[in-house]
Amino acid sequence: LARSGDESSGLTDDSCRSLVRRQSSMSTPTGENAVMKRSIQSLLNKVCPENVGTILQNVAALNVKETSHLEILVDLIFNKALAEPHYCETYADLAFGLTAVLPEFSR
Question: Which of 21, 25, 50, 53 has an alpha carbon 20 to 30 Å from 98's alpha carbon atom?
Answer without folding.
Answer: 25
